Amino acid sequence: MTMVHTRRPKVSWLAPVLPAVVMGLTACGSAGVSGSAAPAPSQSVSPASASPQTQPASGAVTLEAALERWVTQILQEKYTEACLSGAPVLPAGQDAEKLCKSPTALGSAKSLREAWAKPGVKLPPQGEVEVTEVAAKGTEVTVPDTAVKLDGQTLRSLELIGATGDTGSFSLTFKMQKHEGAWYVQGFDLKF
Fold first, then answer.
1. Is residue 5 one of the residues assigned to a domain?
2. Which residues 6+ apart lie within 8 Å of 43 measured at CB?
């Protein structure tokens, strides 16, 4: 009788990314590393913190703009800024400052950048981040990495550069949430 051992191929880039992302998701609940996009003019700022003229709100009018800015911030290594921009949609009682400066959250953001910043791909501001229009029904939407492009290539195609083995079940999605009229990146989910 012959025994056949099957080996499950691995997605090579996930090796350095997975521990940081999983730890980030664990440390942050399901929020992971949060962020958002261009300021929403209707977002109010409490008088105690600052006036709307001196401190823009962190939300965006559209979910596409929120995700474009967040991905751009990650690519420009503005990890804490990207994370803090999602503070309005963090679970109640979670300290955004502490979370966003944690080694786990920073490691997750750096791992995402490494997965997207590939040789020959222009990064912002030279390379543009674009998000395909997403139909938003309600206040929570999930956006796949295939809907986000950097320098004309989807984030998924960039993530899979150098990957080996079966990548069919791999997926990265961004969780978007609308709060008080503005959109935010609440977090991301990585599955494989």
1. no
2. 52, 57, 58, 59, 180, 181, 182
